[in-house]
Design a protein that fits this description.
It comes from Shewanella benthica KT99. By secondary structure, the protein is mainly alpha-helical. The chain has eight helices and no strands.
Length: 204
């Protein structure tokens, strides 16, 4: 079963590569297929990273613009998803450096950064739906508090499904640094959610 899944992933990557090469040769329908396939994940990447939907939309559109301009230089040995997220990552870095210095890229947690975790079991099952919704909002808030490099690694891993090796290639750091970012992000999230949930419980 695992082997079959691996083959499916490989086939998917080959399809993307073929579509990109076809587009580079003038097949506009190939680009439309790629766009429809990857637009959701790429847009969410920007929204979750910067939290500003209008800015996310601008950077998202610019990414596709760069993909179009770079089509002729695309190499088939590069996995398409890794290639486009590397373009997106570089655009994001350029933007953040332009508006806010590198303190956003600190490897350590900021003081206000509580982390997220598995939440305690509910005491009142009658309000389960409301509590679940509230916990989800806490998780989202805690993800936003993560240092940017950790948040990016975590989201690329959890949402986009990239391996640590692929993420290292996208962001241009070592595999060990990438694994550390993912590990610290998970630890941070667990602490953050636990702390914030405890604060809510104490206020009741």
């Amino acid at each position: 079963m695992a082997q079959a899944l691996g083959q499916d992933k490989s086939t998917e990557a080959e399809i993307d590569q073929r579509l990109m090469l076809n587009y580079a040769s003038g097949d506009t329908s190939a680009f439309e297929t790629l766009y429809l396939k990857h637009k959701g994940g790429l847009y969410r990447y920007f929204v979750r990273q910067i939290g500003d939907k209008q800015l996310a939309e601008d950077l998202y559109q610019e990414t596709w613009g760069r993909i179009i301009k770079s089509a002729s230089s695309y190499q088939a040995d590069a996995k398409f998803t890794t290639w486009i997220y590397k373009i997106a990552h570089n655009l994001l870095i350029d933007h953040v450096r332009a508006v806010k210095p590198v303190d956003l890229f600190s490897e350590t947690f900021s003081e206000e950064q509580d982390a997220e975790a598995l939440l305690p079991s509910d005491e009142m099952s009658s309000d389960r739906a409301m509590e679940d919704s509230f916990k989800a909002s806490l998780l989202k808030r805690c993800i936003a508090l993560l240092p940017m490099v950790q948040k990016e690694a975590l989201l690329l891993n959890m949402e986009a499904g990239f391996t640590a090796s692929a993420i290292a290639d996208i962001v241009g750091v070592t595999l060990e640094a990438t694994k550390s970012r993912i590990r610290y992000a998970n630890q941070g999230l667990k602490t953050c959610v636990m702390n914030k949930w405890q604060e809510v419980q104490n206020e009741r």
